[in-house]
Specification:
Two copies of one chain form a homodimer. Chain A is of the alpha/beta class. Chain A has three domains: about 45 residues, lambda repressor-like DNA-binding domains (434 Repressor (Amino-terminal Domain), Orthogonal Bundle), CATH 1.10.260.40; about 120 residues, Rossmann fold; about 130 residues, 3-Layer(aba) Sandwich (Rossmann fold), CATH 3.40.50. Chain A has twelve helices and eleven strands. In chain A, strands 2-1-3-4-5-10 form a six-stranded parallel beta sheet, sandwiched between helices. Chain A has a five-stranded mixed beta sheet with strand order 6-7-8-9-11, with helices on both faces. Chains A and B meet through α4, α5, β2, α6 and α10 of A and α4, α5, β2, α6 and α10 of B. Chain A binds a DNA duplex through α2 and α4.
Amino acid sequence: MSTGPEGSANRVPTLTDVAKLAGVSVATASKAINGRDEVRAATRKRVLEAAELLSFAPNALARGLLRGRTGTVGLLTSDLEGRFSIPILMGAEDAFGAGQVSVFLCDARGDAIRERYHVRALLSRRVDGLIVVGSRTDARPPLAGSIPVPVVYAYAPSANPDDISITVDNVGGGRLAVEHLLSCGRRNIAHITGEVGFQAARDRADGAEAALADAGLSMLGGKPYYGSWDETWGRAAARIVLEQHPGVDAVFCGSDQIARGVLETLRDLGRDVPGGISVIGFDNWEAVAAHSRPRLTSIDMNLERLGAAAGRHLFAAIDGDAPPTSEQFPGRVVMRDSTAPVH
Amino acid sequence: MSTGPEGSANRVPTLTDVAKLAGVSVATASKAINGRDEVRAATRKRVLEAAELLSFAPNALARGLLRGRTGTVGLLTSDLEGRFSIPILMGAEDAFGAGQVSVFLCDARGDAIRERYHVRALLSRRVDGLIVVGSRTDARPPLAGSIPVPVVYAYAPSANPDDISITVDNVGGGRLAVEHLLSCGRRNIAHITGEVGFQAARDRADGAEAALADAGLSMLGGKPYYGSWDETWGRAAARIVLEQHPGVDAVFCGSDQIARGVLETLRDLGRDVPGGISVIGFDNWEAVAAHSRPRLTSIDMNLERLGAAAGRHLFAAIDGDAPPTSEQFPGRVVMRDSTAPVH
DNA sequence: TACGGCGCTGAAAGCCTTTTCGGCTGGTTT
DNA sequence: AAACCAGCCGAAAAGGCTTTCAGCGCCGTA
């Protein structure tokens, strides 16, 4: 145990100790420490020195009890392993960071029972608000029971449109990807993506189709190639697409992993990327996109900014500021080497 | 804001409310709810029903204030993005999970100032203990200042041997990898790994060398090929190794990403894996290892178990149980297709 | 019948801080 | 010189809970 000097009354110092040492009352000590102006400069200095000497840290529990505000927030996620929770979590932490807010992290593992349990515990700890992060973009049932604090849903929206949900604009993302390919001069575009059961897959496909329609085009094969989110599917699907549509000159992939698989097949077949065929991924997962051959252009959904927005919205709701509404975040194209700008 | 029925005295119910509704004193209500035996069964029932009706949740702040135990723990990590913090975090949450502990998550971003700031805040919230998770296995300076609660260091050990550190046995992991290759009948083994500045790289290399020495062998080239942790280096290094040691029949890689690069080069060159050359990675990063061609055998360091152990050790320290000591976790081989069992 | 003892309940103190408000001091105004 | 004011400071209450201890009614026993 890395406790301090064991002999010296091993107890966390309280305001009373500080006051005693400084020779003032606790009330004065409190005011001095909290920077209130009803205290003489000299007195404040004495108190501050005493506090420093004892390395006093005010008891946030007592403070929270009194003020009815704890300065804590619960972050309820469904899959920590996923790549989506973490950036959001970081963004949220940033949004709070500078201030006085600490974050309770709970992983419900996608289990409703466990989720309820965690919510109970968090409410018991009197968090000022809750952020609920999903692992898929499909709408999720809102938190069960009536929650006495503001709740913001991030990434996965709440099924209740009255709730505040901060989400990613997957339709826009799909559109962005296709528009980028079009701007590279491509016309024969196929879309290989993940499981059709995912809203994200369907939304991205919708965006892609819309962008193509705007250009008077349509997807090769008339619809997306749905499969799974991994490289293995990407490799297989690429073969299928090449066979069915030898004239394909661009592939929009629903994930970076799929794109990676596509790139591998193209390489196996000696196809020139991006000369003959352009490939664009989705998610901008650095570890995957930055080391493929060629390096993969991808759509980044700015998850960290999304997390930060969730944090800000929660704040606003807590403070009862402006009626915070839902928000949808656009993505951006991160150019690497698998797509070539128009010559 | 998803608050409950706004009209009904919109205030979180307190024990007093419950007591009033049940027609008993707060003292009795407290005892009834906490399952103490100084209360008649009928009375307890009344209280419990009242609590249920109001959906009363005891105020953990008040309780913590009184008992001097908050049931909270601070988890201080240095890089959330990294793949190492998360499993540890989940393991720790599991270790606490069943019980009454909530976890404050703080990301210091590898910055000492920010770390100090977070520690201050956590102590102010009167956490019962701290887990410090590093992003590399290099020893880190212990937390600054005297910390009045137990601290457990996970993944990255504290430089102070008196502290409790739960770490991964990288030397053992390197040994494991080589022993596996030897058991596959390989004798000409090269080691391609990451930056020499990482203790993890050096440790794994040491383990590998020791295992080879035990078998009367040594590494091809006499020492590891140090570089960086990514695929690009893996691809380049594989070419170098093949050129310098045409007889190489196995490569132990310091990371799955390096291994992935090695596999790609071998594939480009038409070499047979695992027939002609075996490849083994390190970290067992599912996303990378499970979709390479062939699928990659790797060393898994059981980070989740490590996290759980950190949680348990922290508990023990908090409860003042057995003097908790440091611990080192072994890894295990996860067989896939890039190494073949001996025929 | 009187009394000891048992089982249950409630009043009150305490945990640590913030905030209100009354009181004290010393200087200024009439 | 009396009244007043500003500036500081301290006593006390509040916030929700647990725990101790005294008290009450009731049963069994002498």
